[in-house]
Amino acid sequence: MTVRRVLETLALAAGTTARARELREIDAALRHPVATSRRIAVVQSGGGAGATTLVARTARALARRRGGGVLAVDAAAGDAALARALGGAVDARGLEELVAAATGVTRSRQARALLPDAGAGLVLAGRGGTRVPDDEVVQALGNLVGRFFDVVVTDWGHRTADEATRIARRSHAVAVVARADRADAERGLVLAARLATEVPTTLVLADVGATAGPTSSLLREAARTLEVPVRVLAHGHEGALRDPAARLPRRARTAYARTAGLLLASSQTPVRVGA
């Protein structure tokens, strides 16, 4: 065997080992035990950034690793967008109807009987609509039904800074989704920095059109001083936006799974108010 072939073989082995280690780390993060139900809120700083896609992908990644115990909630304006992102065959009740039906629920099996199965142990609440659901309705749903699930991931859609702040105060972790274009990303960072004083917050940049490279480098430096983690979904996110239920390339699936693990970990990290 030539020296070159030996080096190529060693490089391949090293790459395989690194990949296996990365997958083990992601798997451990997604399976990490929780003491009480964790509420993860996903908001976007501008329309069409991909919050619904992020909720669908991260919630499914968590459900697959945890053997169920994950609830996805559609609290955004729009007609059943989250249901479509989860495959389109999920017939979910509206949130107000669910709250009325869940009054008096005391057991997990009662809660699950009210919610449609979206596959792989993931269940769905809410079906969108022409108006944004009232925050109090979503909060009531969490108190009545969400407590029976390890993780509740809620798609809040596009919200104002004041609305997002109220949402953050009722959550254990927040993901702010913004497009990676510089102007959108900077708006996302401003919102994420504000929410980070309330709850652990992650800025997720959706790279549509391969614009994330220079933008993320600039934002990472700014975010470092604000202690706001920045995740960039650069691989296949554009395809996920076009068809949220489509199977993505391996690197894209890994990126979503790693982001899900990061959000779960941050939901168990106390925030330092005023940091």
From TrEMBL:
Question: Any signal peptide, and if so, which residues?
Answer: none
Instruction: Provide the protein name.
Output: MinD-like ATPase involved in chromosome partitioning or flagellar assembly
Cite the entry's keywords alphabetically. ATP-binding, Cell projection, Cilium, Flagellum, Nucleotide-binding
- Superkingdom: Bacteria
What is an example of a GO molecular function annotated in this UniProt entry? ATP hydrolysis activity
Its Gene Ontology cellular component terms are: cytoplasmic side of plasma membrane; cytosol
* Species per Swiss-Prot/TrEMBL record: Flavimobilis marinus
Q: Which GO terms describe its biological process?
A: negative regulation of cell division
